Amino acid sequence: MRRRLVLGAVVTALASTVLVTPASAEPELALRDGQRYAAVIQRTEYGVPHITGVDMGSAGYGFGYAYAQDNLCLMADYVTTLAGERAAHFGPDGRVNTGAGSFTNLESDLYFQAFNDSGRLERVLAAPGGPSAEARETVRGYVAGFNRRLRETGVERLPDPTCRGKGWVRPLTELDVWRNVYDTSQLTGVSSFAGQIANAKPPVGQGNPGVPAAAEMQPVGSNAWGLGRAATRDGSGMLLANPHFPWAGPKRLYQAQLTVPGKLNVAGASLSGLPMIALGHNESMAWTHTVSFARRFTMFELKLAPGDPTSYVVDGKTEPMTRQAVRVQVRGADGALSTVERVLYRSRYGPVLADGWTAGSAFAVRGSNEDNMRAVDQELALGRAKDVAGVREALHRVQGSSFINTIAADSKGESYYTDASLVPHVTDEHAQRCVDTPAGRAAYPNRVILNGSRAECGWGSDPDAVTPGVFGPKQQPAQQRADYVHNSNESAWLTNATAPLTGYPRMYGEQAGPRSPRDRLSHLMVEQRRNGTDGFGPAGFDLPSLQQTMLGNRALTGELFRDAVVGLIEANPVLTASDGAQVDVRAAGAVLAKWDLRMDTGSQGSVLWREVYAGIVPLRNKFAVPFDPKDPVRTPHTLNTAEPKVKTAIADGVQRLTGLGLPLTLELGKAQRDIPSRKLLPIQGCTGFEGCFNVTEPTTTKLGADGTYGKVEMGSSFIMAVQLGRNGPRTQTVLTYSQAADPTSPHHFDQTELYVRKGWVPERFTRTEILKAPGLRTDVIAE
Predict the structure, then answer these.
(1) For residues 123 and 286, what is the distance between their CA atoms, to the nearest angstrom?
(2) What is the CA angle 162-99-63, rounded to 5?
(3) CA 320, CA 335: separation in Å to the nearest integer?
(4) DSSP E strands, 148-278
(5) How many helices and strands, by DSSP H and E, does the chain display?
(6) φ, ψ at 283 (rounded to 5°)
(7) Residue 297 C-alpha from the chain's centroid
(8) 677 labelled catalytic
(9) Residues 38-54 pLDDT 10s
(10) From start to end of 65-180, where are the E strands?
């Protein structure tokens, strides 16, 4: 069996089985007898790896190796979390943010160990409808490549001091990767209840009344535009991908290109430790995802059996809860290990939660992705789709999009949106029948709590759904347009401002309701670019204007309210702060009047606006003109200057700056900075609630004693602008936090420095473009 791939470049031999040829020659890469994998990794500017394999396993092998070069410690830490071993290495009280929320190490371990002991993952992997042979082959190769890199360096010689010599670093297993796939699918679902599940126990006395709440997640989100021929200058299709994901931890994005000749050629980004491109493009189609607004779980209120808080009643019959004894190792302050044992409880609907477990009732939670292991297959299928029709077919066939919307565009000038995520099958009629307890009625529709004492209140199903209990493709919101589609983490209703989507189940989100400032600004940016009224050149999108629009750093709240605030200051030069102090605000008015309404790093007045608006945003009656569903992009508007707390907010904001000895003209880049290992670089953008499209989420939006907002925790991450013309894709990207979590890597902050300057990386997609890259490095690996 000999599969060959001819590649020309300077070759660094990393295995004795690889033929090394002169720079001027065309080296032959072949899968020789006895070898399982052969791949080429070509690094272009900013360390972006272009990986070519002789088959899917080899592509995975190269991908795993390249990722380990940049992020081995990051993955090793995440594996410790997924294995339920954090307390054994780091003690029980430290906290870990899994992406689904922040938990103590012990809570996290109990949750993950319970899942691992249950054998559920192995059953899903073995069941019909599990990952395909190709997906398994890709994962197997990824593991082999990752471990190859670890063997070469050894734990004691790892360049990253974060995990060099640490006992928690070990070779990766295929099960580790599948755990990652599974955990990622739970991101906005049951895993956000990890602490509630780990701490649940039968009540003593009346117990703990109330309704359980999920952990506060990192505010993952995204913007996405699919632009059709009616929105672009030359009639091509275009796509903007702007995921908002954490800048640190296991949910970082990683940029790469994967090629298997004749089978796959796709460039874009993947989530940490996953062996497929999750958003990107091929020769004629580009796609991206945003976090869906749809519900990913429901709770069930259990009626407990009299005198037995570990049994519940369904249709008049008593059922005992299932008990699972879970044991985890915990390292004490003296370094000694001990065992902590807990009993976790489960109902027919899912795990029982801590809060709300009283002598008479309890709550359980069920997630829609509990049997979904199709994410690898889903993204591979999307990567092969040639147009938006192919995207639609891939989503309907695989149904592996766990918690995300999909937005796509193609070279034919078509754009497409759908929420093809897995959503609990609870129709509006079903909710009307089964959301009938006091707690359920009080929480609906923000939370869906069904009556668990009636079997009929379990989830329904659709015949076209590959998984029982979820809506099938025919019920999913979808829209194909020649002008544009968009999503900024709101419901599907306003995918296109001129053609609202209606008629889908309420589980997918609100229809005809107010939109967030970020969502409204997104529509305005598209509209004004199409009209040519945004200052970025003639009407219609091309690649440069798409890039400029993305990094324009407009703040919609400033555009809506700034002039009214300046008017209030001019009429009231001294205002009363919330502590009763009299604050002279005249200088602040002059600064805000000159503010450019941008959240650029050098914008004077941007910090002052943030401090002032922090007191305005919670006001329920801040708008004088209410929301109008007939004009959802431009309403509500006009600041309610009759509200006395608006004046208080202005005084408080000014007082906060002057009290810290900071100038009212303080520039955003001096207060909003990256982490020290990346030089405390000034970072542009602001939060979604402030009305920024280019989202940046610092630790807090109120200045600390040091005059900063703390480190940037999440926001715009892998930004990709693609034009799909007749001559193939033209793409510009920037990975805001750079490729490598390793602080010793030259690619730890290089793209961050570029992002600070509003720079972009011209993508090298074709073979010719890759070979022209200055400083090209090529590694040929095989085993």
Answers:
(1) 34
(2) 60
(3) 39
(4) 221-227, 237-246, 253-260, 264-271
(5) 20, 34
(6) -70, -25
(7) 18
(8) no
(9) 999 999 999 999 999 99
(10) 95-97, 102-104
Complete DSSP assignment for 530-590: HHT-SSSSSSSB-HHHHHHHHT--BBHHHHHHHHHHHHHHHH-SEEE-TTS-EEE-HHHHH
Contacts of 201 (CB under 8 A, 6+ apart): 342, 343, 345, 354, 357
Please tell me what DSSP assigns to residue 45.
G
Q: CATH 1.10.1400.10 occupies which residues in the chain?
A: 553-692
* Cβ neighbours of residue 16 closer than 8 Å, sequence gap 6 or more: none
Residue 465, helix vs strand vs coil: coil
Question: Quick one: tokens of 11?
Answer: 């070759």
Catalytic residue of the set 222, 270, 347, 745: 222
Question: Is residue 413 within 8 Å of 403, Cβ to Cβ?
Answer: no
List Cα–Cα distances, 452 to 105, 193, 263, 436, 571, in angstroms: 31, 18, 48, 10, 58
The single-letter code of the amino acid at 107 is E
Tokens, residue 650: 């202005």
Dihedral Cα 391, 394, 400, 401, nearest 10 deg: 10
The highest-level CATH class for domain 189-217+297-367+426-459 is: mainly beta
In order, the DSSP letters of 678-746 are: GTT-B---B-TTTTBSSBEEES-SS--TTSS--BEEEEE-EEEEEEEETTEEEEEEEETT-S---TTST
Which CATH code fits 553-692?
Answer: 1.10.1400.10
Instruction: Tokens for 746, please give them.
Output: 């030259």
Rg of the chain (C-alpha set):
27
Q: pTM of the full predicted structure?
A: 0.96
- φ and ψ of 574, to 5 deg: -125, 125
101: left (phi over 0), alpha (psi -120 to 50) or beta: left
The confidence score (pLDDT) of residue 366 equals 98
With a CB cutoff of 8 Å and minimum separation 6, the contacts of 268 are 241, 255, 256, 257, 277, 278, 279, 280, 281, 718, 720
Name residue, tokens 């395909």: 132
Q: Over range 323-327, report the average pLDDT.
A: 98
For the chain, the straight-line distance linking the first and the last C-alpha, in angstroms and rounded, comes to 15
CB 105 within 8 A of CB 88: no
Token pair 């229809």 in the structure block, residue: 511
Q: Are 716 and 253 in contact (CB under 8 A)?
A: no
CATH code 1.10.439.10 region(s) in the chain: 4-188
Q: Return the pLDDT at 399.
A: 97
Length of the chain: 783
DSSP lists the bridge partners of residue 728 as 725
Q: Give pLDDT, residue 218.
A: 62
Tell me if residue 778 falls in helix, strand or coil: strand
**Cα(388)–Cα(128) distance, rounded to whole angstroms?**
28
248: β partners? none
Residue that has been written with the tokens 């919670």 in this structure: 618
Contact 210, 355 (CB under 8 A): yes
pLDDT greater than 50 at residue 23: no
Instruction: Give the C-alpha separation, 104 to 106, whole Å.
Output: 5
Question: Are 179 and 100 contacting, i.e. CB atoms less than 8 angstroms apart?
Answer: no
Task: Tell me the backbone φ, ψ of residue 226, rounded to 5 degrees.
Answer: -110, 120
In angstroms, rounded to a whole number, what is the distance separating the alpha carbons of residues 559 and 269? 33
**Beta partners for 575?**
583
The pair phi, psi for residue 336, each rounded to 5°, is: -80, 145
Closest CA to 80 of 183, 216, 158, 153: 183
Under CATH, which architecture does the 4-188 domain have?
A: Orthogonal Bundle (1.10)
Contacts of 238 (CB under 8 A, 6+ apart): 225, 226, 227, 231, 232, 286, 409, 541, 543, 546, 721, 722, 723, 724
Mean pLDDT of 744-759: 98
What letter does residue 19 receive in the DSSP assignment?
P
- Location of structure tokens 């307890």: 437
Residues of the chain with CATH 2.30.120.10: 189-217+297-367+426-459
Give bridge partners of residue 223 from the DSSP assignment: 242
Mean pLDDT over all residues of the chain?
Answer: 94
